[in-house]
Amino acid sequence: MKPPLLLIGQGSHDDAGSAEFGRFVHRLRCRLDQTAAEVSGGYLKQANPRLSDSVANLVARGHHRLVALPLSLNRAPDEFPAAMALEQERHPTLMYDTGRPLGPDPRVLALLAERLDEAVADLAPTGPLRLVTDDEDEPISAAETAIVLVGEGSTDPAANAEVHRVSRLFWETHGYDYMTVETAFVSLTPPGVPGGLERCRRLGARRVIVLPYLLFAGGMLERVWAQALAYGAGHPELDIRCAEVIGDCEALADVVIERYEEALVFGA
């Protein structure tokens, strides 16, 4: 039997994000059941199940080696090494290999492109936030449309630089027809969403699509939408659309499974 996969979330008081995390863990559990590998999930803080409880359950079932994969598009959370070291103190026989973060995998960029296309097509009438002018008859071309890719934001300059790198990679691989792909952050570091939108407006964009570089819906996405809504209220001439997050899906599961198998090979 292969070592179990332990997905590790940052954790928050956000029920929507926790629910989607749970659904994704279930999806992977169904997928990896075919290879006789257990899948569990735990949070570093604030939400349940806690990492400590998930590890304790795995050890109680006889697992003393596992693959720990921080469910993150960027680098592992700062708390991750200390949290796993604490678990090894509690369970001296525990060994673990660490899976790489998910982004910017080409399949993650492709999922972002799908969310962008959905926002352009406006497929869901009750879905993403849409702020438009009264005159919707005049077509707006891709060359007049800018994209603002929005990451969470960090106090770590290297983590923020990685989001800028993703913006460039996305423009090179999926957004070359658009005016530009700018970078913004939800919090902790500038520019915020309004700053990204303002840059696009000054560049002459008639439409801006806000593209969250986030895994799951929840409070973080709501903050993105709220910032876009507040900016749009003061700039009615600008067509602003907000795409959905990457979300729980088979393509994302493919990336996680590859990271799991990769960790098994390098940890052998």
TrEMBL record:
The keyword Lyase applies. It comes from the Bacteria. Its EC number is 4.99.1.3. Pfam families: CbiX (PF01903). It is an enzyme of class 4 (lyase). Coiled coil: none annotated. Signal peptide: none annotated. Keywords: Lyase, Metal-binding. GO terms for molecular function: metal ion binding; sirohydrochlorin cobaltochelatase activity. PANTHER family: SIROHYDROCHLORIN FERROCHELATASE, CHLOROPLASTIC (PTHR33542:SF3). This is Sirohydrochlorin cobaltochelatase. It comes from Nonomuraea soli. The lineage of its organism: Bacteria, Bacillati, Actinomycetota, Actinomycetes, Streptosporangiales.
